[in-house]
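<goal> How does this chain fold?
<body> The protein record starts here
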Amino acid sequence: MSFRDDLKADLDIFVESEEFAEFVTVDGIYLRAQVNAHTAQKSGNINLNFEGLHGDFVTLHFKTADYCGKKNRLPRHGEQVWVDNVRYDVESCEDQLGIAKLVLTAYRQNTLRPHPFRGASPYET
């Protein structure tokens, strides 16, 4: 058995909802994903924020097969996706041995608002 075969057998561990992941809806597909939501300061993207705009940055890791089973391909840079009824722009998306890494951004004008993944406080980092 090769390393890739061993890794495919262990993919469920990386998106286990009791340990690492949570359930999210991505483009209407209900799946388990590891969610990392952060502000521009914490992500190192401070130079991507503009005066009057506030950026939400989200990275999702999920099984590629769960998404591609419903859609024919992963999202591409510049496309828009909906995650739990919030629209994001795709910065990048790549398949890493069966786990998709989807990097998303969303800019909001003027005021910060509660982020669905960060909780009630819009100023949480």
Residues 39 and 45 are 8 Å apart (CA to CA). The longest strand covers residues 53-63.
